[in-house]
Amino acid sequence: MPAAFLACHNLVKRYGETTVVNDLSFAIHPGECLGVIGPNGAGKTTTLRMCLGLSTPDSGRVEAFGLRMPADAHAIKAQLGVVTQFDSLDPDFTCAENLMVFGRYFGMKTADIRARIPGLLEFAALSHKADAKPGQLSGGMRRRLSLARALVNDPRLLLLDEPTTGLDPQARHLMWERLQQLMQQGKSILLTTHFMDEAERLCDRLLVIDHGRKIAEGTPRDLIAQHLEPDVVEVYGGDAVALSSGPLRAMASRVEVSGETVFFYTQDAAPLMQALAHDHSVRSLHRPANLEDLFLKMTGRQIREEA
Amino acid sequence: MMNPMLRWWPVFLRNLLVWRKLAIPSLVGNIAEPLMWLVAFGYGLGALVGSVPLDGKQVPYILFLASGSICMSAMNAATFEALYSAFSRMHVQKTWDSIMNAPVALRDVLLAEMLWAAFKSLFSVTAILGVMLALDISRSPMLLLVLPILLLAGITFSCLALIFNALAKGYDFFTYYFTLFLTPMMFLSGVFFPRDNLPVVLQHVSAWLPLTQAVELVRPLFMGRWPADALLHLVVLALYALVAWSVALALTKRRFRG
Fold it and tell me: Is the pLDDT of residue A1 over 60?
């Protein structure tokens, strides 16, 4: 395997008594899209901040492009593109000016940036908004402008912190399309997300973290196959919860109850579906196990205090 | 790659470009208020006061006030920019965060903000000086030296304000700085009346205030004289700037390490 673009070795970060990132190691290889998934407060954003040299790990180290963070922070950041969780566009500048001003932070010449702006705006589907200010844009447009801004220096690696949070489905799909386009151009991406369909669709490899620790790593398909039964039957309505301890229990290898819904995880859903077909007091849904099941199995169903 | 010494420049330029869009209203605000003070107190109160004794001579009150209030304007312009505007960019708009995702360090961002606030203060002061010339308050050729001195004062007050910027949780916090530091300093530094009129204890405090240094340097230049102890005042002002800069940088770094 070629040398990693970015590698974190045994990162630890504590805030007072709380350990936010706990012995975390991972690497991103050229051309790869790595997804980092975990509940709120799992340490995703802190990890990204350490990758950017904005936060100093209590122990462990970050390397990128053969350089060390934070000693070579400037040289590393010159090759990175970053989209943060919250938009930080300049509200006083137009879209085109936002790109121009940001390019200057990389030491780019005005003429070189100017030459790149039409292409970047087109990529962000914002050519018609070149002279609009961020306040006049929709949420999806602002996120795409943030993405275009992160591309102004033609980075090799993109760090994206929840790039589609708060977007409607149309805007989210357009964002996905653009990210896939970037991967085809050979860019590497590190992505944090709460959306399992996003992780499944975009990421070559996933890192599941909780309480600052890595709890699983692998391709989405392998992770599901390793940790879950292939089929799920969700039963709800009526007295569904009672079924979790009844005779149907034996037809599933694992059963979870969440509120009024029972989840039967099974190798073969046919007998279960047959048995349920006669019970009209409850409703049932048969579907393949997905990443969300995996995520909930690993990190639990309870709401996090931070959420 | 950029010259490491000049990483602050694109950040300074960013502020300049935003300001260019709002320059006229901003200029009106920066000049109109000090001029109102000057007209109301200089001509209004000046008519009652007549002249003020200064170094054994009688000086028209308007001249006394103009030479002090221009220092106060330098202080206020730099302070407002380095408090409210810098805080908006740092905390509200998260502009600093996005800049630091590029190869620009926090130190460069802070340096740019400091120099920007000092520049804006110099700009206001230049405009005010122009109006004072038009009002024929002073025609001394030594007025040219007022600008570099007030640039230094602008730098000092920017650095001081950035300390409070680094500590602020919200805009309300800045009220402390204005009420507890700037307003008393305005009255203790000889802007409105000679410092000799203060009780002796306050005179000792007053002698070491940063605004006093600026007033002691600038006022004689308005009269066409060299300031006494010029070097001492310049050194004190520069020391305030250096110490305040170090403290502001350390506190800002602490804030962003979180």
Answer: no
Query: Distance (Å) from the C-alpha of residue A78 to the closest C-alpha of chain B?
Result: 6
Q: Choose, out of B7, B98, B109, the residue to mutate when testing the contact with A (most A CBs < 10 Å).
A: B98
Find tokens 């706990």 and name the residue: A22
CA distance A95 to chain B (A): 14
Q: What is the mean pLDDT of residues A138-155?
A: 95
Chain B residues whose CB is inside 8 A of the A90 CB are 14, 18, 93, 95
Q: Is the peptide bond before A70 cis (omega within 30 degrees of 0)?
A: yes
For A125-187, where are the E strands, in sequence order?
157-161
This complex has an ipTM of 0.90
Distance CA A211, CA A298 (A): 12
Whole-prediction pTM: 0.90
pLDDT tens sequence across A5-57: 999 999 999 988 889 999 999 999 998 999 999 888 888 889 999 999 988 99
Q: Single out the residue of A62, A68, A3, A66 nearest to residue A30, CA to CA.
A: A3
The secondary element (H helix, E strand) that includes residue B146 is helix B146-167
Average pLDDT score, chain B? 92
Interface contact B93-A88, CB threshold 8 A: yes
Interface of B with A (CB under 8 A): 1-4, 7, 10-11, 13-14, 17-18, 21-22, 93-95, 97-105, 256-258
Phi, psi for A235 (deg, rounded to 5):
-125, 130
CB contacts, 8 Å: B100 with chain A:
52, 54
pLDDT tens-digit series, residues B146-190: 999 999 999 999 999 999 999 999 999 999 999 999 999 999 999
What are the sequence ranges of the domains in chain A? 6-224, 229-288
Asked if the Cβ–Cβ distance from A74 to B256 is below 8 Å, we say no
Residues 6+ apart with CB under 8 A from A126: A95, A137, A141, A144, A145, A148
Is the pLDDT at A165 greater than 80? The verdict is yes
* Distance between CA atoms of residues A221 and A203, nearest Å: 11
pLDDT on residue A127: 96
Domain boundaries, chain B: 4-257
Rg of chain B, C-alpha, whole Å: 19
Confirm or reject CATH 3.40.50.720 for domain A6-224, answering yes or no: no
